[in-house]
Design a protein that fits this description.
single chain; 134 residues; mainly alpha; 2 domains; three-stranded mixed sheet; 6 helices; 3 strands
Length: 134
């Protein structure tokens, strides 16, 4: 409201005042609607907040799924597996990449979830590695 008073003080024509107020309103509402959108990378990782790596790994093993979890940043990283052994594990067990991981951090929330994904993958992979060894 104070901004519209400031605008009307400098704009004498009533039509210009009306147009200025409409444009200002559109600008404010346009900014407000965009701020509520959740980044698609964050959406892909939100499942981690309720996930249990131990339970999930045990269920995967029961289904015969021996794939390790990988993080695709600049290259594929398999938490809990050294770079030297990475190819051996990939060929023997397979790797499933966690969607939403990137080498670009998009927000504080994205960073938090990527850190959580790494921790989750470390615990998950430790259990899978007990049953799948190169």
């Amino acid at each position: 409201m104070a901004l519209s008073r400031l605008l009307t003080k400098h704009i004498k024509c009533p039509m210009n005042q009306f147009v200025s107020i409409i444009l200002l309103s559109l600008l404010v509402t346009g900014c407000a609607t965009g701020s509520g959108d959740v980044d698609p990378y964050v959406k892909q990782l939100q499942w981690l907040d309720a996930a249990n790596p131990q339970t999930d790994a045990q269920q995967a093993l029961k289904k015969g799924d021996f794939r390790l979890l990988g993080l695709a940043t600049r290259s594929v990283n398999i938490p809990g597996v050294s770079n030297e052994e990475s190819l051996k594990y990939e060929l023997k067990c397979g790797v499933q990449l966690i969607d939403g991981i990137s080498d670009v951090v998009r927000s504080d929330e994205h960073l938090r979830l990527m850190q959580k994904a790494r921790s989750y993958a470390l615990k998950y992979n430790a259990i899978i590695k007990t049953r799948c060894k190169p």
